[in-house]
Amino acid sequence: MDGIKYAVFTEKSLRLLGKNQYTFNVESGFTKTEIKHWVELFFGVKVVDVNSHRLPGKGRRIGPILGHTMHYRRMIITLQPGYSIPLLDREKN
C-alpha cells in the first residue's frame, strides 16, 4: 500500500462515489495493474476498471534554484456492483 498516497475528495470524486467509483492519488511509477491488485487485496473488493491521468508537479523556487514538486497520478477505480470501500462509503451520504 506504499503506492497509494491518499483518497481524493473533490466535487467530481464525490459525484463519482454514486457510480461506485473511488478516486486515489498514487505515486507516478506504479501501473494500473499494480494499483488494481493492491486495492483488491487491501480492501477485499473486486475492481472492474481503472482509469488514470498524470497530474503535473507544481513549480517551486528556493532562492535562486528552480525546482518542482513530485508528479503523481490520479486513479479512478470502478468497483463491481455490490462492493464498496467502507472507509470512504461514509462520504456518499
From TrEMBL:
<protein>
    <recommendedName>
        <fullName>50S ribosomal protein L23, chloroplastic</fullName>
    </recommendedName>
</protein>
<dbReference type="GO" id="GO:0006412">
    <property type="term" value="P:translation"/>
</dbReference>
<dbReference type="Pfam" id="PF00276">
    <property type="entry name" value="Ribosomal_L23"/>
</dbReference>
<keyword id="KW-0699">rRNA-binding</keyword>
<keyword id="KW-0687">Ribonucleoprotein</keyword>
<dbReference type="InterPro" id="IPR012678">
    <property type="entry name" value="Ribosomal_uL23/eL15/eS24_sf"/>
</dbReference>
<comment type="function">
    <text>Binds to 23S rRNA.</text>
</comment>
<keyword id="KW-0934">Plastid</keyword>
<dbReference type="GO" id="GO:0019843">
    <property type="term" value="F:rRNA binding"/>
</dbReference>
<comment type="subunit">
    <text>Part of the 50S ribosomal subunit.</text>
</comment>
<dbReference type="InterPro" id="IPR012677">
    <property type="entry name" value="Nucleotide-bd_a/b_plait_sf"/>
</dbReference>
<keyword id="KW-0689">Ribosomal protein</keyword>
<dbReference type="GO" id="GO:0009507">
    <property type="term" value="C:chloroplast"/>
</dbReference>
<dbReference type="GO" id="GO:1990904">
    <property type="term" value="C:ribonucleoprotein complex"/>
</dbReference>
<dbReference type="GO" id="GO:0003735">
    <property type="term" value="F:structural constituent of ribosome"/>
</dbReference>
<comment type="similarity">
    <text>Belongs to the universal ribosomal protein uL23 family.</text>
</comment>
<dbReference type="GO" id="GO:0005840">
    <property type="term" value="C:ribosome"/>
</dbReference>
<keyword id="KW-0694">RNA-binding</keyword>
<dbReference type="InterPro" id="IPR013025">
    <property type="entry name" value="Ribosomal_uL23-like"/>
</dbReference>
<keyword id="KW-0150">Chloroplast</keyword>
<dbReference type="InterPro" id="IPR001014">
    <property type="entry name" value="Ribosomal_uL23_CS"/>
</dbReference>
